[in-house]
Structures are given as structure tokens and as C-alpha cells.
Amino acid sequence: MANCQLLTMAARALITFSPMTDCLFCKIIAGSIPSKKVYEDEKVFAFEDIKPGAPTHVLIVPKKHIAGVDHLTEADTEVVGYSHLIAAKIAKERKLEHGFRTVYNVGPDAGQTVFHLHLHLLGGRQMHWPPG
User: Domain limits at 75?
Assistant: First the structure.
């Protein structure tokens, strides 16, 4: 049982910390797949969602490959908070003064289809609760 746990932890570390050659978002960040870039710095890359759910639908993606919220470690806290700061900056630039929503989908049942952590910024229309 202990060997199985160690193997799982090692596999999880590889998924979390290694750039994935088959990851769609890693390829977008690297520039090998085109996107409509909104923002980029040394920590994150933001681009327009190809299937927008609102007039503004931007994905803020850490450049470090992290499979999802369920793979975060304490070392990732800064990039999670930073992603929200960038979302607020983009929302301000787009004059979303009446409100916007930020969302992380975690796992297939929540609608996560790309397993690279990404924050959705949605705005420009009335949001409803509960979502989806």
C-alpha cells in the first residue's frame, strides 16, 4: 500500500510540475497553437475562450502546468491569487463595472475539458444563480 501511495504522489508531481507536451494550453502558451491573446507576463497567459459563454469570456492560465484546482499545492497559492488580480485588471479594462464572474471548473462533472488550471473571467451580461 505504501509503494502505491508513493507512486501516486510521484505521478501527481510529474503531472503538476512538468510542462505537458500534449496539453492544449501549454501549446497555446508556447505559441504553437494560435489564440487571441489578451494579456501575458512571466506568470500567466490570458486569451479569449473559443466558445464564449458571455460577451467577455477570457481564460487566465498559469504558465506553470498544473492539472487543476485539485492538484494545487501551497507553492501554487501565489499564482491562484495573482490570476484573480489579472482577471480584475482585464474586467476593469473592459469596463465590466456592473459585475463579472470568475470560475474554476474542477473535473469532468464540473465541465473541465482541458486539464491545465485556468480561471474563467465572464462578464458583459446578467449572470444567474445557480450557474450552469
Answer: 2-123
Between vectors from CA 130 to CA 125 and to CA 132, what angle results, nearest 5°? 75
Is the predicted pLDDT of residue 97 greater than 70, yes or no?
A: yes
Q: Domain count of the chain? A: 1
Of 3-12, 72-81, 119-128, minimum mean pLDDT range: 3-12
Q: Give the residue numbers marked as catalytic.
A: 118
- Global pTM reads 0.83
Q: The CATH number of the domain where 57 resides is what?
A: 3.30.428.10
Q: Do residues 57 and 96 lie in contact, with contact meaning Cβ atoms separated by under 8 Å?
A: no
Burial of 26 (0-12, 13-18, 19+ CB in 10 A): buried
Q: Is residue 12 exposed (0-12), middle (13-18) or buried (19+ Cβ within 10 Å)?
A: middle
64 within some domain: yes
In 10 A of CB 15, how many CB atoms? 16
Residue 58's H or E segment, with its range, is strand 56-62
Which three-class secondary structure state does DSSP give residue 103?
strand
